[in-house]
Design brief:
This protein is an alpha/beta fold. 37% of the residues lie in helices and 15% in strands. The chain has 16 helices and 13 strands. A 7-stranded parallel sheet has the order 3-4-2-5-6-1-7, with helices on both faces. Helix 12 links the parallel strand 10 and strand 11. Helix 3 packs across helix 4, helix 6 packs across helix 8 and helix 13 packs across helix 14. The two termini are 39 Å apart. It binds adenosine monophosphate.
Amino acid sequence: MPFSHLIFEPKLLQSIADLGFLKPTPIQNQAIPVILKGQDLRASAQTGTGKTAAFILPILNALIQPKAGQGPRVLILVPTRELAEQILVETKKHSRVFPFIKTICLFGGVPYPQQIRDLSGKYEILIATPGRLIDHMERGRVKFPRLEVLVLDEADRMLDMGFIKPIEQITKAMPSSRQTLLFSATLKGSVRNFSKKLLKNPVDIAISPEHTSSRNIEQKLFHADGPQHKMALLNEFLQDAALDQALIFTATKRQAARLAVELREKGHLAFALHGDMNQNQRTKTMQRMRQKKFKILVATDVASRGLDVLTITHVINYDLPRNCEDYVHRIGRTGRAGAKGLAISLVSSHDRSQLREIELFLKERLVFCNQPSSKSQAEKPVAASWKKKPFKSPNAQSRPGNFYHKKGRRNKFLTKKRFK
Ligand code: AMP
């Protein structure tokens, strides 16, 4: 079905076409008519399925009719600052044809003055994390007299993070006549119970079976014991000619910081993203990643949800996630918007039981691959031009140079030898 069968506002249709969206994704096909009818919605949709546009487009379509008064007409509640910023970007992309629809964003870890200034002006859409929103509500800066739509995005994650009480506090301050849209990776257990309290006769949409990972993401396992073995494999994977940008997940913040440094020492353009960095540092790192100023981001699960960088071709689990759902979220950072992606997990002997749990969760057997054929090649450094003194191993000189050394001429030896 083309977009013109779902959305009727010509300016919005033009904007969708300008963005290169040729046809609606399945979640958009199913959710947009429900939202336009004003019904409550409970949807399980995988990351990268276009779920943000699935709610933003019909919301914008409705906001075109002006409404007097102050305060948000739409509140989008999200678990993390990263997701808030990403939804802001997506919303601004679509709403730029309607200059009178202003969107503002509130999240913790940043100073208050700018947020206070934003709140004192007129705005229609508010994107917020629950904690900072409550801070502002308690100081009387946010009220909901004209609220029409509440969106709860990544509701399962918000519940995992202990936001049940804050969400209840926020919803109590809203008109009960609102429309509520809930998006979640899973609609089972606590999310279902919680949603029953907040939604009225919701329409349920399940886009793909829960717990399965996206089909356009190839998943590979490699056995790896110990940091040296993991580093040797990483070095190999990061030389894959098909790699545009890579996201590497570690179990701890310290490990993320240390691994980024070690990779830089080996000549890779790598930076870290974790919860110990302040918001400014995190935002700058993400901006630089999006601008392709570097290739490799080493992160904790702070980056496993919401992060939408279309050029991430590789996700590498340096450590397996402890939580099975995080596996799906992590690998969903690649293969965005229909692109192909590769997800590699390094599995030590101690990780085998965790791997079984993940497979049970996915209802899918994951395949171990042979070790890359040349370990010494794996240990070879990738000297990058930004590094003042490229690391040189004793063997490095005698090998055919890799493609970072010979600009424009990719080394056949390396490009042919894609790991299987
Ligand atoms: P999301 O699942 O909301 O995180 O969206 C993933 C990516 O898909 C974003 O970069 C969107 O801009 C993009 N996207 C959303 N809908 C479409 C569509 N119908 N056609 C092409 N790309 C889309």
